[in-house]
Amino acid sequence: VNQQRQITSFFSKS
Amino acid sequence: MLELRLVQGGLLKKVLDSLKDLVNDANFDCSATGFSLQAMDSSHVALVALLLRSEGFEHYRCDRNLSLGMNLSNMAKMLKCAGNDDIVTIKADDAADSVTFMFESPNQDKIADFDMKLMDIDSEHLGIPEAEFQAIVRMPSAEFARICKDLSTIGDTVVISVTKEGVKFSTRGDIGTANIVCRHNTSVDKPEEATIIEMEETVSLTFALRYMNSFTKATPLANQVTISLSSDLPVVVEYKVAEMGHIRFYLAPKIEE
To answer: Which one of B120, B128, B204, B221 is at 20 to 30 Å from B144 when CA atoms are compared?
Structure first.
């Protein structure tokens, strides 16, 4: 099963 | 005081049309560099970054950095009232609770102003690191839009794979499967018809077609789209906005658990 990742798990708060 | 005059007002209409289905509310940031926006969709799966550089405006006055919170569908409604060839001016005072859009017809015989209420938006700004991509595909934007639309009639996700053979878009659904391969091709009449594939390493990633289809709303902005891919990283789908900037969509991949 492919799980949808969130963009926030790749880019951090600046 | 903010005053931005854009001769190609139609560009702003197209920009809003490409954003409004993905993002509800967003802060437009205005600085000496330009007019920009960074926003995520409500489920935080996709992110859009817009930049319109100050040099691209006929007149660009931004006395101090300003953040204008706008509802994008309301902004799109207002910009829909501008003609495609109109000159659009965006005006706001430093402590304003509204923004004014002024539309001038090319021969100056019609001038309209629309005032829109601003809103306070709590948005988190994400740092997007510079990435080296394993593969970069440049192709006609209309072709990419067609592929996403066609595949979404069959499946919900697209696997984008770049190999020496080209770029392959694949999907599967209840009724069957589909594969579309586009090869590197620069022997075309016009440069915008070219497909250019730069590959450092083969790469294969899975994405939700719903978001890809939303990104293709930006197709009227540019003849070419650039798709940048790296394993286990969000894809970047970029459209140039004339000579003045870009709109970049980032989409998190689906990853096998």
So the answer is: B128
